[in-house]
Amino acid sequence: MTGADPAGVWSSPGRANLIGEHTDYNDGFVLPFAIDRRTFVALDTREDGRIRVASTFDGAVAEVALDELDDLFPDRRGDVPEWATYPLGVAWALLRTTGVAADAVTGVDLAIASEVPVGAGLSSSAAIEGSVASALNETWGLGLDRVALAQAGRLAENEAVGAPTGIMDQMASMLGQPDAAIFLDCRSLDTDVVDLGFAEAGLALVVIDTQVEHSHATGGYRERRAACELGARTMGVPALRDLTVDDLPRAATLLDDVTFRRVRHVVTEDQRVLDTVRVLREEGPRAIGDLLVASHASMRDDFEISVPELDTAVEAALRAGAIGARMTGGGFGGAAIALVPHADVQAVTDAAAAAFEASGFRAPHVFTVTPSAGARRDA
Ligand code: GLA
Question: Cα 60–50–156 angle (5° rounding)?
Fold first, then answer.
């Protein structure tokens, strides 16, 4: 932006969630992994106490004084382009959580370039947050660890952007490891690295991006959260994490039908995450297919966050040889993932395209992803 060499380049990846959907904001378990598509931010310092952001998302540049961030969020967020609320929101969240004064840190120019498809359910937002948080943490000498940076990213997303999401995406983007998933307890924020071993098992992870756009700031996501909170309140527990499948018969007598099915999804999904971690460790990735399929059915029938395109993607993948498949992310659009033997990747790709065409849907984007490293400094 200034034409000068940037003071540094940082990056953070998108994520795919292997299993554990809509469990994070219920204090439950998730098993996401970082993918090999990243968002890069080049940072240069400036002397006038302002923050300026430019990106490959559009031609617009957003600029604000650091000491005006508090006025911008949340009430005047509409003054900047929506994508800019992510990087500016992270700057705001970092200053707010650390209590560092805006005039105690240097101004910055940030140039953002992303390889993570937007709206595909692969958390392009957490990739922006992770890269910007890493860059500012180092440049401003804040000394925050990766979990604290993930928390700042979530604060930005919840309060600055205004999307009531959990912390899974930010944790996956910050903490991802090559060839592994991150088993996260969303209550304690304890993590465990779980080897995936897809390549050794002759498997590929195929993403079928339906091209159906979704937003977590509106509608369905918020409603599901509210139903979960109602379910927990009625059952007399702090969060649905505190229920097990043994509590479901009692839940069925206390809750209305819709709330019960929302609760049943979360409670059984938490159990499926625990089962997936155990099966991965004991038997390897070829044995987790049924758990992925059961997760999709639960989201389709109980949580009701799938759409016909996602169901079609999952069914086509399974028919063409996938070991397991499910929608990933918040739902209402976005992508499905399929665990596929190498030899069947082309067949799954073709089957998804053919099934979409036959149903009159827009052609899907189909590609493979590799479990990869989390946030880092690149230059
Ligand atoms: C979105 C949110 C996450 C999580 C998932 C559903 O990706 O950002 O926090 O709630 O949906 O599992």
Answer: 70
**Ligand 1 atom, smallest distance to 166 CA:** 9
Pairwise CA distance, residues 311 & 327, whole Å: 8
Active-site annotation holds for 169: yes
Give the pLDDT band (50/70/90) at residue 1: very low
Q: Which of 18, 21, 24, 157 to mutate to test the pocket of ligand 1 (most atoms within 8 A of CB)?
A: 24
Using the atom order of ligand 1, give the atom closest to the CA of residue 20: 12
**CATH tag for 8-193 (out of 1.20.1340.10, 3.30.230.10, 3.20.20.60, 3.40.50.720):** 3.30.230.10
Q: Over range 232-257, report the average pLDDT.
A: 98
Tell me which of 15, 18, 19, 22 to substitute to probe ligand 1's pocket, judged by most ligand atoms within 8 Å of the beta carbon. 22
Atom of ligand 1 nearest to the CA of 126: 8
Q: Where in the chain is the domain with CATH 3.30.230.10?
A: 8-193
Mean pLDDT of 8-23: 98
Contact at 8 Å (CB) between 110 and 136?
no
* Residue of minimum CA distance from atom 8 in ligand 1: 165
Whole-prediction pTM: 0.96
| H helix or E strand, kind and range, residue 232 | helix 219-235
| pLDDT above 60 (res 217) | no
DSSP secondary structure letter of residue 347? H
| 3-class secondary structure, 357 | helix
Task: Residue 11: count other Cβ atoms within 10 Å of its Cβ.
Answer: 25
C-alpha distance across the termini of the chain, in Å = 17
Confidence of residue 219 (pLDDT cuts 50, 70, 90): confident
**166 CA distance to ligand 1 centroid (A)?**
6
- Confidence check: pLDDT of 57 > 90: no
Domain covering 196-369, topology:
Alpha-Beta Plaits (3.30.70)
pLDDT at 181 over 60: yes
pLDDT at 97 over 80: yes
